[in-house]
Amino acid sequence: MVESVIERITRGHFWDFHGGIHPPEQKFLTSNKPIKQLALPKQLIIPLQQHIGREGDLLVSIGEHVLKGQALTLSTNPMVVPIHAPTSGTISAIKMSVIAHPSGLSQLCVFLDVDGEDTWRKRDVCTDLAQLSNHEIIKKIADAGIAGMGGAGFPTHIKVSSKPDIKFLIINGAECEPYITADDLLMMEQSNAIVDGIKIIDRLLTPAVILIGIEANKPKAIKALQQATAAIEKIKVCIVPTKYPTGGEKQLVQILTGQEVTSGRLPIHDGIVMQNIATCFAINEAVRHDTPLIRRVVTVTGQALNKPQNVWALLGTPINFLLEQCSVENIKNEKQTVIMGGPMMGFSVSSELVPIVKTSNCILVPSKKEMPSAFEKESKEVECIRCGQCSDVCPSQLLPQELQWSAKAKDYSQLEKLNLRDCIDCGACAYVCPSQIPLVHYYRIAKAEIREQQQLDLKAEKAKIRFEARKLRLEKEKVARQEKHQKAAAARKAAMNKATPEATGAKSAVAAALARVKAKKASKGQSQVNTSDSQNDLPTDTAVDQKSQVATAIARAKAKKKLKEEAVQKPSTSDGIVDNAIEEKSASTQQASTDDKKEKIAAAIAKAKAKKLSKSAEAPDLEKDSDDTSPKKTVSSDDKKAKIAAAIAKAKAKKLSKSAEVPGLEKDSEDSLPEQTVSSDDKKAKIAAAIAKAKNKALAKANEGKVEVNETSLLTSTNNATEIDSKPLQPEKMVQNNIAESENKPVAATDKKAKIAAAIAKAKAKKKLKEANTVEENDRDGV
């Protein structure tokens, strides 16, 4: 087949494609003028995305100074090509700006303030391509940011990657748009560089034949390429008939090879690769001179310009700067129409700040006489008359009329069935439409909406996949954790069942932890001991119970009040006995406490309470006066009070006998007591009985001596014998003083009872001193 194609080309016989038109040419406006080098603009607006695919990651920030050729974005995906600084300057802004798009779409752009020095970054120039591997060449092409410059903008490094069985490499130099001459001038001026670029592609793809397709209306370009390729038999310069749109990829393939690329397929599927003339030049610049794609040839034309011509435009150059360089006539006229691209496939721009990008090859500024339809504010579109001319001229053999109906109805499924994706937006259908329907406009909008919907569907599908993967991962982690816990529990259980020191320690640790938890709960739920019910139930903590503090304060207040009311009083003969009884009660209470300080405080309180009782009784002299006035009444009242006091004292003694712990009586050299042979309970009972008897006798004598005993004071002093105070108790001295006082009283107890009481008090005092010394020694040892 290849041989037959070469033979046909040699004879000058080519195939034809369906449809096509012959619009009037206006190439003469710029075809005879060389490409002009322009001065540097003051500012460049560089879009991050200038090709098919997605934008790269930014490498620069605002305020950063960059050099010419420095990369501004990073390629992180095969469908991403980087952009570079067209000249040196400072990044003044990174923001959204209007780009070259039919809808006036805004996109993220880098604003570069040009410094005018045009300083290059360091470049690695390659003089011998044999030193580079194919992989290094492809990497240079990718790093240079080269994308298809014929209009599609497909990343070039993907198209030139090594592929097997490439039959034809087609270089597209047709340039079929009526006004555009950018490729024509480039072939005339840079034919050798273009051929060098073709050689690089040939090395990467190794095709069987290389075909350069040029329309017959470019004689100078044809001659230049024929001379540059004369020594290369593999390259064939093919002069094809002038017809629009011969420059379409599928159309040129069919003209040169006779193969029709069916719907849904690409030329690469049939072993055919196509590259644009400008792309070949850019490949040579990148591989040999380490020059990234930062400029391109742009045809600035139209009858509204005084100096239409082709210029080398830096990428990012605003359109208004190019128009100034070409002396536009109505630059201040707001109604002036500016078209990006040719009259057939171009579109009007919404702002003159729209920048030049990698796929921009023409800026058309027509006059009103030249293109009256471009200046009409309202469309003259009318209903379709179903003439069928659009179908006749369609190079892709589509049904433009039905496509337009489905596009207006947003019936995307029907558009898919009608093969809308095969439309190349050539505009031939709109050109011949008698109803002036902008068919291409409807197709472009429909394609954009379909593309957007596909992207949303793709994102949704990816999100669904991620969600399902996350859900599965979480379930696996949950199962793994459960298995891990089960294994750990089984291992602990097995280890504890073994008779090993580790297992014993683990059991002990578990038991200790459980015990601590139980103790903590018990300590929280335990109620404090009420000290008001029993005088012997003292708290074991070092801090004094709150209730005891309150009771102490109340007792002290009552004592102070009583002392103020009864300022002049004399001691009674019963003080010694009552004092001894209270001392015995205080000693029995102190015996239950382990704290030396509390024992001393309790003894001091007992002493104070005894003194209070001794003062509470009225003096005999004062009672005599009252007896003289009413003897009968006083005697009867005294008897009644004496009985009540005796009953109270007896009850207190019984209570003390049950609660107090009284140690065994010890023998003394001075006042010996009979040896005790009964049990400790009997001893306690006898002692309590002796105390009660002593109290009764004291009350009786007080009654006989006309001494009034206040039962309330006696009861209060008995109940509060253990109240806290700050002075320590000296039991021995108290016993001696009480004995001495009892000997001086006019009314004294019998010698036998006095000796018993003194012996009891002395024994208790000695026992207390001994326990106090023991507690002090224990405290020192603990410290």
TrEMBL record:
<dbReference type="GO" id="GO:0046872">
    <property type="term" value="F:metal ion binding"/>
</dbReference>
<dbReference type="Pfam" id="PF01512">
    <property type="entry name" value="Complex1_51K"/>
</dbReference>
<feature type="binding site">
    <location>
        <position position="429"/>
    </location>
    <ligand>
        <name>[4Fe-4S] cluster 2</name>
    </ligand>
</feature>
<dbReference type="InterPro" id="IPR010208">
    <property type="entry name" value="Ion_transpt_RnfC/RsxC"/>
</dbReference>
<keyword id="KW-1003">Cell membrane</keyword>
<feature type="binding site">
    <location>
        <position position="433"/>
    </location>
    <ligand>
        <name>[4Fe-4S] cluster 1</name>
    </ligand>
</feature>
<keyword id="KW-1278">Translocase</keyword>
<dbReference type="InterPro" id="IPR017900">
    <property type="entry name" value="4Fe4S_Fe_S_CS"/>
</dbReference>
<comment type="similarity">
    <text>Belongs to the 4Fe4S bacterial-type ferredoxin family. RnfC subfamily.</text>
</comment>
<dbReference type="InterPro" id="IPR011538">
    <property type="entry name" value="Nuo51_FMN-bd"/>
</dbReference>
<dbReference type="InterPro" id="IPR026902">
    <property type="entry name" value="RnfC_N"/>
</dbReference>
<feature type="compositionally biased region" description="Basic and acidic residues">
    <location>
        <begin position="621"/>
        <end position="642"/>
    </location>
</feature>
<dbReference type="InterPro" id="IPR037225">
    <property type="entry name" value="Nuo51_FMN-bd_sf"/>
</dbReference>
<keyword id="KW-0408">Iron</keyword>
<keyword id="KW-0004">4Fe-4S</keyword>
<keyword id="KW-0677">Repeat</keyword>
<feature type="binding site">
    <location>
        <position position="384"/>
    </location>
    <ligand>
        <name>[4Fe-4S] cluster 1</name>
    </ligand>
</feature>
<comment type="function">
    <text>Part of a membrane-bound complex that couples electron transfer with translocation of ions across the membrane.</text>
</comment>
<protein>
    <recommendedName>
        <fullName>Ion-translocating oxidoreductase complex subunit C</fullName>
        <ecNumber>7.-.-.-</ecNumber>
    </recommendedName>
</protein>
<keyword id="KW-0411">Iron-sulfur</keyword>
<feature type="region of interest" description="Disordered">
    <location>
        <begin position="521"/>
        <end position="548"/>
    </location>
</feature>
<feature type="compositionally biased region" description="Polar residues">
    <location>
        <begin position="525"/>
        <end position="548"/>
    </location>
</feature>
<dbReference type="InterPro" id="IPR017896">
    <property type="entry name" value="4Fe4S_Fe-S-bd"/>
</dbReference>
<feature type="binding site">
    <location>
        <position position="423"/>
    </location>
    <ligand>
        <name>[4Fe-4S] cluster 2</name>
    </ligand>
</feature>
<dbReference type="GO" id="GO:0051539">
    <property type="term" value="F:4 iron, 4 sulfur cluster binding"/>
</dbReference>
<dbReference type="GO" id="GO:0005886">
    <property type="term" value="C:plasma membrane"/>
</dbReference>
<dbReference type="Pfam" id="PF12838">
    <property type="entry name" value="Fer4_7"/>
</dbReference>
<dbReference type="GO" id="GO:0009055">
    <property type="term" value="F:electron transfer activity"/>
</dbReference>
<keyword id="KW-0997">Cell inner membrane</keyword>
<keyword id="KW-0472">Membrane</keyword>
<comment type="subunit">
    <text>The complex is composed of six subunits: RnfA, RnfB, RnfC, RnfD, RnfE and RnfG.</text>
</comment>
<keyword id="KW-0479">Metal-binding</keyword>
<feature type="domain" description="4Fe-4S ferredoxin-type">
    <location>
        <begin position="414"/>
        <end position="443"/>
    </location>
</feature>
<feature type="binding site">
    <location>
        <position position="387"/>
    </location>
    <ligand>
        <name>[4Fe-4S] cluster 1</name>
    </ligand>
</feature>
<feature type="binding site">
    <location>
        <position position="426"/>
    </location>
    <ligand>
        <name>[4Fe-4S] cluster 2</name>
    </ligand>
</feature>
<feature type="binding site">
    <location>
        <position position="394"/>
    </location>
    <ligand>
        <name>[4Fe-4S] cluster 2</name>
    </ligand>
</feature>
<keyword id="KW-0813">Transport</keyword>
<dbReference type="GO" id="GO:0022900">
    <property type="term" value="P:electron transport chain"/>
</dbReference>
<feature type="domain" description="4Fe-4S ferredoxin-type">
    <location>
        <begin position="375"/>
        <end position="404"/>
    </location>
</feature>
<feature type="binding site">
    <location>
        <position position="390"/>
    </location>
    <ligand>
        <name>[4Fe-4S] cluster 1</name>
    </ligand>
</feature>
<feature type="region of interest" description="Disordered">
    <location>
        <begin position="560"/>
        <end position="683"/>
    </location>
</feature>
<keyword id="KW-0249">Electron transport</keyword>
